[in-house]
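I'd like us to work through together how a protein chain folds, taking it slowly. To get us started, please write out a protein record for me. Go ahead whenever you are ready, and we will take it from there:
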Amino acid sequence: MYDPAKTARWCREAAEQGQSDSQCCLGYMLQDGVGVKKSEVEAMRWFKLGAALGHPQGQCGLAMGLLRRSNRARKNDAEAVRYLRKAANQGLKDAQVSLDHLRQSGRGFA
């Protein structure tokens, strides 16, 4: 039977050892509060680590977090677009769609 808390523990252990898939997985678990206490700050830390290793899910997760943080001020939009482009160039469909939405709205493309 699926145990989210156990999955999160295994994911964290692998993430702490530098495994980028696990870093991104843990980021999403923290973002959504699945098996762990919800924490956008800690999720962003793990997304950033995954993104630094070139993982498209990490790049996309980091970009979306930056966009959520700058929803009104839009101060992080250009940085978010940079990460989305990296993920989109690796074929990540979610990043491609998000990038298209931002382009249509003019966010991050000043």
Observations:
- The chain has one domain: 4-105.
- The chain is about 70% helix and 0% strand.
